[in-house]
Write a structure and sequence with these properties.
By secondary structure, the chain is mostly helical. Helix content is 73%, strand content 0%. The protein has one domain (8-417): MFS general substrate transporter like domains (Growth Hormone, Chain: A, Up-down Bundle).
């Protein structure tokens, strides 16, 4: 028992605050790419690599912490991650060589693995009928931390900063956000409770074996939702780390704060609209409403599929808007991409705990971990030196998403979807789908 009696809503608030700040510190480098590039002598391609590197450790880290959260409880795991992230963020403020700075920020970037910890924590407290909405609020408001970083940090730590300890704005930002992270770690460990009942806690803990993880990770539902998350959350990560640079370089917008503000419009949409994606999934499932009869009776799947298709369309729209040369049109297109990401991500994480109620941390870890791969690969496409301009990368990424949506359509067929949490690509249930169903 913590210092106060925890309820599902207090747990949701605690998890959301923790993840929101984790997202802020994860992408705290994005508003400062200009002055960092000047100090360390970085090219545009190297900035793209830095944006990509922010995601490198996330796949394995999320997979591991998802399982650890099932095994040891979310409060303990969340506190450990926030503590070491805070320490290395503070250390990066003192880095004098780019090599040291790069490694330290690589470790700070693992703040993003807290997503699956909070997903597991919220799932341990809410009933299935409310999961989509609760997880949507958690992830949506939490993801908006990237927008908070873009909007707040350049204003709190402006160009010309000359405060205590530092005369460089980005160094001050990294140090003080690290201090806050350590403080949040203490709060989370002190107040958090792992599950709403001891019975629920034990059921989750007992499912957290390596054999159980391997089987769960290869089910049809896990695999296809993980790939869908590549093209949604992976896309969101890539845009969070790249858009400030894109609006600055692609449209000759040299005002650092203005470029960061343009980029924040995407993060606001991708974050704050995410609860809508979860709510619509919950509502369709409760009301048993078919919006895409080809997947008759699979209500959550229908909404997820529609949202994924919308993401692809908006990526082609992003390229078309950029080619007009009108920065405000491109900002609007970026907002639409963020909206598509939000709806799809909310839908995906409404499905995860509903499909795997006693192993939500494990599945969230796999889905969230694999999903971050898009955040590694996509920035390299955006900044590829062989592209004729900075606008074409979005269409290329959009085209690469089409095979994922086709696989999703296969798994979302009613006779496959009904056993997607049992039948898998490997293991004893690999042949569990019958074409006669």
């Amino acid at each position: 028992m913590g210092l106060i009696r925890m309820t599902k809503y207090r747990t949701l608030l605690l998890a959301t605050v923790g993840f929101n700040f984790s997202f802020l510190i994860w992408f705290s480098f994005a508003p400062f790419t200009g002055p960092m590039a000047e100090e360390f002598g970085l090219s545009l391609t190297e900035i793209g690599i830095l944006a990509s590197a922010a995601i490198w450790l996330a796949p394995f880290g999320r997979i591991l912490t998802g399982w650890l959260s099932d095994r040891y409880g979310a409060p303990t795991v969340f506190a450990i991650v926030l503590t070491y992230v805070g320490v290395f963020s503070m250390a990066s403020a003192f880095a004098q060589s780019y090599e040291v700075f790069f490694v330290e920020r690589l470790i700070v970037a693992t703040a993003g693995i807290t997503f699956v910890i909070g997903i597991q924590h919220v799932a341990e407290w809410f009933d299935e009928a409310e999961l989509g909405t609760a997880e949507g609020i958690y992830a949506g408001v939490g993801n908006a931390g990237a927008a908070g970083g873009a909007l707040i940090l350049p204003r709190v730590f402006p160009t010309g900063w000359n405060g205590p300890l530092f005369s460089t704005n980005w160094r001050a930002a990294f140090f003080y956000t690290g201090v806050v992270a350590i403080g949040l770690a203490v709060v989370y460990y002190t107040l958090g409770e792992a599950a709403k009942t001891e019975e629920k806690r034990q059921a989750t803990k007992e499912s957290a074996s390596f054999k159980g993880w391997l089987r769960t990770a290869t089910r049809y539902g896990t695999v296809v939702l993980a790939l869908a998350y590549v093209m949604t959350f992976g896309l969101e990560l890539s845009m969070n780390g790249w858009l400030a640079t894109y609006y600055r370089e692609g449209f000759d917008t040299q005002n650092l704060t203005l470029a960061a503000t343009f980029a924040a419009t995407f993060s606001v949409a991708a974050g704050l609209l995410r609860p809508i994606g979860g709510y619509v999934s919950d509502r369709l499932a409760r009301d048993e409403t078919d919006i895409l009869p080809v997947f008759h009776g699979r209500y959550r799947e229908q909404w997820t599929f529609v949202a994924l298709c919308f993401v692809i369309l908006t990526m082609f729209g992003m390229t078309l808007a950029g080619l007009t040369g009108q920065v405000l049109l491109a900002v609007g297109a970026g907002f639409m991409v963020g909206m598509g990401c939000a709806f799809a991500e909310g839908a995906i994480f409404a499905q995860v705990p509903a499909m795997f109620p006693n192993s939500s941390g494990t599945v969230a870890g796999v889905v969230g971990g694999v999903g971050t791969v898009g955040g590694i690969v996509y920035p390299l496409v955006y900044s590829a030196p062989f592209l004729a301009n900075l606008h074409l990368g979005y269409a290329i990424v959009g085209a690469s998403m089409i095979p994922i949506v086709l696989l999703t359509a296969w798994v979302f067929q009613p006779h496959v979807a009904s056993v997607a949490n049992e039948a898998g690509f490997v293991g004893e249930e690999a042949t569990g789908v019958s074409s006669d169903d």
